[in-house]
Amino acid sequence: MIRRAILLAACLCAAQPSFADPVPVPADKAAYVGEWLGKDMRLNIKQDGHVEYKRKQPGKDVNLNIDLQGFHGDDFDVGFSLVRSTFVVSKPPHREGGKWKMTVDGVELTRTE
Q: Is the dihedral of CA 54, 93, 39, 76 positive or negative?
């Protein structure tokens, strides 16, 4: 689930430059790269470490362009400077019925081809 820190990062990004470059996706996490779609959620992870995230929830819509800060296990962190948020990956990218799927923050996503 998205945390307050990511919303704070979105507010700060216009007022404060990023002090760290995005971390490119490591070779062992290459399956994460791509555009992922699920119910009311879009996640686009680029090889260079840029992440686009859109999610519709009751009462709020989130639309962020943010930097990858690294992986720990299957989960990954995004953010700017000292403000970070973790995307919790309960099912990492895997093939299912000929399609790539993963579950992030409780939402099953399918990678577009």
A: negative
pLDDT, residue 20, reads: 66
- Would you place residue 16 in the very low, low, confident or very high pLDDT band (cuts 50, 70, 90)? very low
Query: C-alpha angle with apex 40: 46 to 97, nearest 5 degrees?
Result: 70
- Domain tally, the chain: 1
This prediction's pTM: 0.81
Nearest to 49 by CA among 33, 68, 32: 68
Domain range for 88: 4-111
Cα–Cα dist 56/60, whole Å: 6
